[in-house]
Specification:
By secondary structure, the protein is of the alpha/beta class. The protein is about 40% helix and about 20% strand. The termini are far apart.
Amino acid sequence: MGKENNANQETGKFTDSRYYTNRELSWILFNKRVLSEARDKQIPLMERVKFLSITASNLDEFFMVRVAALKDMMNAGYTKPDIAGLKPAEQWELVNKATHELVNLQYSTYKRSLVPLLLAGGLRIIEHHEDLTAKEIEYVDRYFMENVYPVLTPMAVDSSRPFPLIRNKSLNIGALVKKKEGEEELEFATVQVPSVLPRIVPIPSEKKGEKVIILLEELVERNIDKLFLNYNIVCAYPFRIMRNADFTIEEDETEDLLKEIERKLKRRQWGQAIRLEVESGIDKRLLNIIRDELLIKDEDIYQIDGPLDLTYLMKMYGLEGFEELKESGYASPQPVPELPEDCDIFEEIRKHDILLHHPYQTFAPVVEFIRRAAKDPDVLAIKQTLYRVSGNSPIIAALALAAENGKQVSVLVELKARFDEENNIVWAKMLEKAGCHVIYGLVGLKTHSKITLVVRKEEDGIRRYVHLGTGNYNDATATLYTDVGMFTCSRPIGEDATAVFNMLSGYSEPRSWNKLALAPLWLKDKFLYLIGREAEHARAGRPAHIIAKMNALCDRDVIAALYEASAAGVKIELIIRGICCLKVGIPGVSEHISVRSIVGNFLEHSRIFYFENDGVPEIYCGSADWMPRNLERRVEILFPVEQPDLKERVMHILEGELKDTVKAHALKSSGAYEKVDKRGKPVYNSQLEFSLEAKDAARLSQAAVNDRVFIPEIHHQ
């Protein structure tokens, strides 16, 4: 090992595939960390239910995108290994084994742990319609005929009716049927469980204090004979398929990107089937028909002991009457002390840069910033990038109002934001109708940056106000995701913001930047320079330390630079929620690197980077993770936090997450993640502490306002 280390240090290369973890397997480890929260008996029961739902939702997207990509590569004969040295077929074999194990663990958690505990807590889930009592049967059959039956479309398959198109992620009941008269031959029939109806069906309880529910598919299965009156039902079982939902757009050859994406979206429902979920114990004859018609391989079949599609548990989490089974310690998003109610937001930003920490602090000032700009007669222009926005976005409404009020409004709406394409097309059309200038992203790149520029005419000339963030302009997810944002009217950042939008609208690249760094042209080099600078400081015996917080780390160049810095003696602390392809504890390579992942009440989403820089620390926030797609194929922005009090606040966020002993998992040299060792350390839940701190800060700010209002009145008397 010693000779190998010397060779590495001489060449400065740390790219041996043994030093890297496959990104797909690392993602599965992340979803296991989420699942561990569902299995944690210290967490309130309904929160555990929510975490289990999240694992199911995560797994669906993983299959539709990542597994689909692996299958595409295998079908195309692509054999190039990844950074961990695994070819697509080898990756698939390991991923397939790991996902089957993960699904088995999901359902053992559901059946053996959560369902019995929910029953003890007053919620009875009727898992099979055979378990209904006589009174319950009477109710559900009536409910079926009145509410469900009119919506259903039964489909038989015979010589004149081909096998139907089964929609992606739809839940269906497949059946073998036999004509009541005539031939004895078995035929296939199916009916889609309607997604337009609530999947959770409440049933009046015969026991006081108990809530009873049954799933919609059980009602359909129970009454399936009413859909095929001329047939006897031999057997009926639910099934669900996952399809390849990724699509490629040849942007250079596309005349109208919006129309091309609309066309591709329609195909998403009918992509190649890549996973089939069936109820365990399904009749083999029925399974063979479904498998053969969908061209599914045996290894892609998941036999499920429980209800298919556990994402329904999120709706169950929302049921009324179980507040005592939920987390109650977190405060709702709090007001921002620097932006009191009814203040002049532009005046406050002129006084000082303002940092927002969501969801502990409310997202409302960001909405208000754009709303005020839309109405302010002195505002000349508003420019903004939008990647993912909420279903009924107040920001979209404010931008439309600004255009109607005669402002110059330019909005880049990223049509290629995966699974939000349809939503973004709707908003783009609406903004255009209101008179906004809408850009549909850049050819070959996704615009993932989060930036808003407001240009305002003031007494001393034109002033530019800028909001920069690590998260989307989405008021809904801003209550669920941890992100940071900053308001500033710094002249250098304002000039850079103008250059950003000129680049996006006309692709005119500036010769240099004042403060911002952008991907795909400059950002990766900036990060490699900053990491390399720490390595130089360490070699010279100067203070050197890196703390980096992000969602994912899988860029080989960045990881190699971190390995080189670690080998030089730099202390490197990484806080990575999801994928991490870096390995810790490799002698001579990553001995000085630690990795932790926080899976808590909120989804960790902020990207923060700290570089010690020989005692003159630099802190940056941005929209990019250390992934090839972010650094090489997206428009991303990194911005510095320079105001001393704001630097302290950002450091407090990093330090809080580094001392978390409740929600943090540490990456071990074995490649496994374990909950951090609490022995000898105080109990510290960083998310809960940030929530309580925001509440205290808002309370103190309000008390100070009350004092300022109250004291002059006494003096006057």
